[in-house]
């Protein structure tokens, strides 16, 4: 059974997501894409991954990414896992949040995700419960019950959620990353079932962070990894095994 104490990798994922977003912003800015990172290189990191997830939100449907606990964005936002509250900004500047709302169960170790779940042109938030391996997705950035609720993947495994438009149909869908095997399990529909795409990529047990985005502007999101120890991105242009198509620090 996974260690899900406050100091466990899963709990640290949500607590560090905001810091990761800012770190990534300093390295890469992409318009209308969720940037990402991936690798096939080596770094001596203890065999206890510290998974994090990242994603972006276009809060107001204007085509600009307004919130991200993710590798690329136009403006930032934060998620407080202790109160399960989102604080979203429409501009990268000091000030109060433009959108503040509570969603989900507080202090449960749930992990935030974001995407355009219903193809309406606006990215919205969601939560992933690693204990049950269950997703709770919202079609509006506001308090309320989930619009989509479904189980996917293995519970208590420390897997990390990702999201993107893997098949270029205009709708973002979820996926999971297993840091122990460095394997991705991507879905083309937001529903229970087996993965539509399964492949290994990158180094296992290295503490690298998964993400997704359209790194080559072909309107299809692909995965990547980020090595926080060297602040290096390893991006793929196809959702498949192989070496990185783009590597930079």
3D architecture notes:
This protein is mostly beta strands. Helix content is 7%, strand content 30%. The longest helix has 17 residues, at 9-25. Residues 1-57 and 64-74 have low confidence and may be disordered.
Taking all Cα atoms into account, the compactness measure Rg is: 16 Å
Mean model confidence by pLDDT = 78
The rough form would be described as: globular
Count of distinct strands: 17
Strand content: 25-35%
Q: What is the first-to-last residue Cα distance?
A: 35 Å
Question: Which segments are poorly predicted (pLDDT under 50) over 5 or more consecutive residues?
Answer: 1-57, 64-74
Helix content: under 10%
Structure summary:
The protein has one helix spanning 9-25; strands spanning 55-57, 67-69, 77-80, 85-88, 99-102, 111-115, 124-129, 134-137, 148-151, 160-164, 173-178, 183-186, 197-200, 209-213, 222-227, 232-235, 246-248. The protein has 249 residues and is mostly beta strands.
Kindly list the characteristics that best describe this protein.
mainly beta; about 250 residues; about 5% helix; single chain; 4-stranded antiparallel sheet; 17 strands; disordered N terminus
């Amino acid at each position: 059974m996974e260690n899900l104490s406050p100091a466990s990798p899963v709990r640290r994922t949500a607590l560090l997501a905001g810091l990761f977003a800012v770190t990534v912003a300093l390295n890469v800015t992409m318009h209308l894409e969720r940037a990402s990172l991936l690798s096939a290189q080596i770094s001596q990191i203890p065999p206890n991954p510290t998974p994090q997830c990242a994603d972006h939100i276009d809060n107001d449907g204007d085509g600009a990414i307004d919130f991200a606990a993710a590798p690329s964005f136009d403006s930032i936002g934060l998620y407080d896992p202790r109160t399960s509250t989102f604080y979203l900004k429409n501009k990268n500047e000091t000030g109060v949040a433009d959108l503040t709302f509570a969603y989900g169960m507080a202090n449960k170790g749930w992990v935030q995700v974001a995407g355009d779940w219903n193809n309406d042109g606006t990215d919205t938030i969601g939560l992933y419960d690693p204990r049950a391996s269950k997703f709770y997705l919202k079609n509006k950035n506001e308090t309320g019950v989930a619009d989509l609720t479904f189980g996917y993947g293995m519970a208590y495994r420390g897997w990390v959620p990702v999201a993107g438009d893997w098949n270029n149909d205009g709708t973002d869908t979820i996926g999971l990353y297993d840091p122990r095997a460095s394997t991705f399990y991507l879905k083309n529909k937001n529903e229970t079932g087996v993965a539509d795409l399964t492949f290994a990529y990158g180094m296992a047990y290295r503490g690298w962070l998964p993400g997704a985005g359209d790194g080559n502007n072909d309107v299809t999101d692909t995965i990547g990894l980020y090595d926080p120890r060297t602040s290096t991105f390893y991006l793929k242009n196809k959702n498949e095994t192989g070496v990185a198509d783009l590597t930079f620090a």
